[in-house]
Design a protein that fits this description.
alpha/beta, 2 domains, five-stranded parallel β-sheet, globular
Length: about 450
């Protein structure tokens, strides 16, 4: 099966993870652009280079999984930063139409997020001073259905609103393309959501026009990758805290149950009512009242009940905390049995779920299964999601050499997976938020 895949940017979880997942089935031939063509924290993608790369693809490509933000704006972060006009971006993306015709295309475009902080690392410069005020203006304007009083300078507010209007116009354009039959699946993603906000209002408007929206962003190309693989899998979602599955995760606007079901539906899975009907049981280590957050120091009650291994093969989405694993739950897994179909605790609930399910889909009935590739994928996930994000990251004040700190975790994971681990760790975006785990 030949798959064209254009990621959001060059982060390991967007670029390497897609390659590592597809390597589990040696019959999948993944066509992915050279990493240097893709955007980073400070650099936009080489859009012209990507269009040239697309035109040179083999004619017998089975399907295309596209992050439209990469081709329209140069990436997810540039979609919020660049000053190109609507007409300029429209002319750019119109060149895609002849490339897409006649192909099975699974595409997504983001609904511009509104982060609730004064950090401009991924936003325009003025976010460092006015970010929280813009979030509040958005939240309250939508909650009370009228503009509210604000001390945000007019020129800043106008620039922000005009950027939103431009991006919304491009999304409406894609919806027109869908009516022309250019997409097999088109998803609009809601990144870093709250209960109210311009992004929520825009999603409702798009839905009223027939669009499909999903909470999340970075994982959606991987969920679409799962959808593109024509395999029927029955999944039983089993919540560790079933009485709390109506709680809403950090950075999301839907309950954890809705997030799980939404990712399963988008990935092309069939949800069943009991583990006896399931091919794979999806265990969700969900939170009680409030999801924890290692990065922000938001605590929550960790997992503490007895663990029952399902009678069926299972996968684990560990979402009790955002941005990292629940240490108590991982200890339980290590003492009993690692999941047959993968573990994930990366970032938001939707991020963890979507990336996990892509691996489940590829491994299940792989035509030529590569066990070493699967174990490599799992080693990276445990080293990143558990060892680094939930433990080592909190021990460092800035990006630095963490090799010595990671050794105890490497030894445990090596023993449990039955493979030698020789890892190197780098910071691809020169910040603590993400590391790249390179295994020899």
């Amino acid at each position: 099966m030949k798959i064209c895949f254009i990621p959001i940017d060059n982060r390991p979880v967007c670029y390497n993870l897609a390659k590592d997942i597809c390597a589990i089935d040696e019959t999948i031939e993944l066509f992915i652009p050279p990493r240097e063509m893709l955007g980073s924290l400070t650099k936009s993608a080489d859009i012209e280079g990507l269009f040239g790369w697309l035109k040179d693809l083999p004619q017998d490509i089975h399907c295309m999984v596209l992050s439209l933000d990469t081709l329209a704006y140069g990436g997810l972060i540039p979609s919020r930063r660049i000053t190109d006009s609507f007409d300029t971006i429209k002319s750019r993306v119109e060149r895609l139409k002849p490339i897409l015709r006649g192909k099975k295309v699974y595409a997504f475009s983001s609904i511009m997020r509104i982060s609730n902080n004064n950090v401009n690392e991924e936003e325009k410069e003025y976010w460092s001073e006015w970010g929280k005020k813009i979030f509040e203006f958005s939240f309250n304007s939508c909650k009370y259905k009228k503009p509210i009083e604000t001390d945000i300078p007019r020129e800043i507010l106008e620039d922000y609103l005009n950027t939103r209007k431009r991006n919304f116009g491009i999304n409406a354009l894609y919806l027109d393309w869908q009516s022309e039959g250019l997409f097999d699946t088109l998803i609009f993603s809601k990144d870093d959501c709250a209960e109210f906000g311009f992004n929520v209002s825009e999603s409702i408007m798009l839905e009223n026009w027939g669009a499909t929206t999903k909470t999340g962003a970075d994982e959606i190309p991987l969920t679409l990758l799962a959808r593109a693989i024509p395999k029927q899998i029955n999944i039983y979602p089993q919540f560790i805290e079933p009485e709390y599955k109506d709680r809403i995760s950090n950075y999301e606007d839907v309950s954890i149950e809705q997030s799980v079901l939404g990712q399963l539906e988008l990935g092309g899975f069939t949800v069943v009512d009991s583990q006896w009907e399931a091919d794979v049981v999806l265990i969700i280590n969900n939170f009680k009242e409030k999801q924890g957050e290692h990065v922000m120091g938001w605590d929550t009650e960790p997992y503490k009940w007895g663990y029952r291994v399902p009678n069926k093969p299972f996968a684990v989405a560990d979402v009790r905390y955002a941005n990292g694993a629940d240490n108590e739950f991982v200890k339980t897994l290590l003492n009993y049995k690692l999941p047959d179909y993968g573990y994930s605790a990366w970032n938001t609930s939707a991020n963890s779920l979507g990336s996990l399910l892509a691996g489940v889909k590829v491994k299940y009935r792989a035509f030529k299964y590569n066990e070493h590739a699967y174990k490599k994928l799992q080693a990276v996930r445990y080293l990143d999601d558990w060892a680094y994000q939930a433990n080592v990251r909190g021990q460092i004040s800035e990006s630095c050499d963490i090799s010595e700190l990671m050794i105890p975790y490497e030894e445990i994971i090596s023993s449990k997976l039955g493979i030698p681990i020789h890892a190197k760790y780098t910071y691809p975006w020169n910040r603590k938020f993400e590391i790249e785990v390179k295994l020899d």
